[in-house]
Amino acid sequence: MRKAFILLALFISLTAxxxxxxxxxxxxxxxxxxxxxxxxxxxxFGKIISSDRAEVVGKINLRNLQNKGDHWEGxxxxxxxxxxxxxxxxxxxxxxxLVISVGFFEKEVQWPRG
Length: 114
Hints:
By secondary structure, the protein is α+β, with helices and mostly antiparallel strands. It is 16% helix and 53% strand.
């Protein structure tokens, strides 16, 4: 019984840790924009908290983020195109790597921790 409890506690702590990899403040390095990735009711979202473009501040730009083990998948809103695009995100050395998919094309951008 004790071993089962320890395994359950370990599993919960690892799950909680993996949830927090990408939670935090990130610098998009475009238009001096800063994005906060946060958890709300068990789901992760990204919101622009600072930008040279005042009209985008406070807007959600990441949604439906789901943990896929070694990366996250969800959607990224591109304000210039006014569209949601599929995005795959992984974190390495305090940098987020976002791979944005548009049809057959992919683009990778980097956001350092802000």
